Amino acid sequence: MRVLMLCYRFNSLSQRLYCELSEAGYEVSVELDVHPHLTIEAVELYKPDLVIAPFLKRKIPREVWEKYTTLIVHPGPPGDRGPDAIDWAILKGEKEWGVCILSAVEEYDAGDIWSYRTFPMRNARKSSLYRREITVGERRRNYRKQNAHKFKESP
Question: What is the arrangement of strands in the sheet containing 96-103, beginning at the earlier edge strand?
Fold first, then answer.
């Protein structure tokens, strides 16, 4: 399976997910999100079976998610929406938090939820939470199997 990771930065979450997917045998390419037109071009050139976005600062262009199965890794539980989710959880001293995998749609973090899990928050830096609790590597094999009926055929 060809996976295109779309990232604003290749942060610890993105790096861990890249390693997990590569070690599992997926063909993974990374594209930094610097401009919507370049994102569209990168996707059209790579022709992935799946686009996954573990860390973004802007919306994925409609031209991408309408044509390719595009999943967002959102560091928050179902119902949480918007940027800086894990930062707010840390600042508020949340005892439990979560991570969702959801479809990219027009509104931020409003797509269908493919999978989620909650976890107890621990006293740790954000990067550590990203590398351990938020990284979905241990569940990667289940997403496609559990949601195979949702995958569109890519061109």
Answer: 27-32, 2-7, 50-55, 70-74, 96-103, 113-120
What's the topology of domain 2-148?
Rossmann fold (3.40.50)
Long-range contacts of 23-26 (CB under 8 A, 24+ apart): 24/140, 24/141, 26/1, 26/2
Q: What's the mean pLDDT when you consider all of the chain?
A: 81
Q: Tell me how far apart the alpha carbons of residues 48 and 57 are, in angstroms, rounded to a whole number.
A: 21
Element (H, E) at 43: helix 36-46
pLDDT digits (tens, 9 = 90+) for 94-110: 898 888 888 988 877 77
Top mean-pLDDT range of 10-19, 78-87, 130-139? 10-19
Task: Say if residues 90 and 126 touch (Cβ distance below 8 Å).
Answer: yes
Residue ranges per structural domain of the chain: 2-148
Amino acid (one-letter) located at 54: P
